[in-house]
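Catalogue entry: protein
Contents: sequence, fold tokens
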Amino acid sequence: MARPAPPTRLTDRKRAAIVDAAVAEFRAAGFETTSMDRIAATAGVSKRTVYNHFPSKEALFVHIVDALMARGSDERATPYRAGTPLRGQLLELVQRKLRLLHEPDFADLARVAIVASLHSPELARQLMELLGRREHAMTTWVRAAAADGRLRTEDPAFAAQQLESLVKGAAFWPQIAMGQAPLTDAQQDAVAESAVEMFLARYG
């Protein structure tokens, strides 16, 4: 997946280094063990610089999760296209979702977020607020297709949730919760094909 160009201003470069260091530390050690001192040392900046950018470890972690969620809610990457066959559009949408789920930083940080939320109700509350503010690209697409009369549903958000559950049931929760191996490319294709066929059989 394409990444933004490296920042040019010193303060922006330091912020990017802090975020990269935090991702590495959270992935390696988890939320509880990671400290702002470790993040500062890994980023090569002072702890004061870290706090100048992020007031707390929780705020830094929420920023990272928000950036990950933004990748999954970018409707510009997979917009609904009127007049184009639904099946091909849905396959593109689901395959993009599968690629995101299989990015190492996404899977690792999802595990960290789940465990950290169990131990910190305040962090769990902040993460739930993020979920409430962002509409996933899948929901945006289903809403547009339903408004165009091409999907039969009065509740696009619920329909999109069902589609996402079909995907995550095979390609997220078994890996996150039960330690199963990531799906191969062929397995991802099979999950995408099956999920799209089931969804269109119900709503198409």
